[in-house]
Amino acid sequence: MKINIKPFHNNKYTYDENSIACLTSWLNRNYFMIFKDLWNFNFINKNKLTNNIGKRIVFYEKCNLFYLDYYHGIKLTKHDTVKCLDVVGYITNELNNGHPVLLLIDVFWLPWCDDYQKQHQLHYCLALGHKHNNIICLENHFDLKDREVILPISNLIKSLDSFYTYEISKRELILSNWRELTDEILYNLAITDSFNDMRNFAKVFEREMDLEIEFSGYEDTRNLWKIPLIHRILQISNGRYKFSNVVEYIAKNTNCIDLLLIADEFFLVAEKWYIISKLIFKGYIKSDIKLLQSKIADRIRDLADCEESLACKLSNI
Question: Least crowded by CB within 10 Å, which of 50, 208, 222, 244?
Fold first, then answer.
C-alpha cells in the first residue's frame, strides 16, 4: 500500500519544514503560522569562549509545532524509538491506515543521499507506504529526479532517531484580529533589542572580523556555506523569507492590504541578507574581504534601519 502525495520543495525551507508543508498541503491545511517567531536577531558583543563573529550571532530558526496545532489544527506527536517496543509495526500500521509518518533518520543509512555511508546527519522525510521489507519514502528536500525513494526496513531500524504521527485536532483557526497578532510579534521583537544588535554586529564585523578565525577548518570551497558566519546569515535570510509568508498569510486572511505590502518588503529584506552572505563568500574567494568589510557593514546597518522601519509600519497600520 502507498499513499499518494505530491512532493513539495522550497529551497528556503529546512528538511522538516518541507516535509511538514508537504503533509499539510495533502491534508488541505495551511502551515505558514509555524514561522511566526522567525523575525529575530541577537548578537553577543563579547564572548570569552570564541573570537569567531559568526558563532556570536544568535538566530532562532526553528518552526513552532505548537502553532501548527493552534492555528492550523494539525497535531504532530513525537515518538522516541527507545520508548516504542515495535517501531516497524507501529509505523506500518499507521501507513496501512492511510496515515503518512514523518521520519527523523540518519543520512548515513539513506541510499539516495550523497552522504550515504559517509557521514552521520539527521534528516526528515515522509513515509508513504511499505512493500517487500521496504519503506516507500517521499524525499522533499534533496534534488532528486524521482522523489519517491526506497528505504530497506533494515536501514530504517539502523537510521531511525524518532518519528511523528499526526491527527486533525480541530478546524483551522479563522484569523480575524490581525492587530492582536502583530502586537504579539512586535512585543517579542522588542524584548530582544534586535535592531541595535544588528548595528552592533555591523560595528564588530567592520572593526574585528578576521578571515583566518572565521574560515578556519573550512578551506574546502564546497563547504563554505557551513562557515558559521555565512551559515547564520543564510538562516537569517531564510527566516525573513518565511516570516514574509506569515505576514502574507495574515494579510490575505484578514483582508488587510497594508500588511500585504509589508509582506513584500520582508521578502526584499530576505534578499538583501542573502546578498550579504554572497559578498562575504566573494570576498573570501577573491581574498579582498578587507575591501568589502566597510561596504558589508554599511549594508547591515541599512538593514537594521529598514527592519526597524518595518516594525514602525506594523505598529502604525
Answer: 222
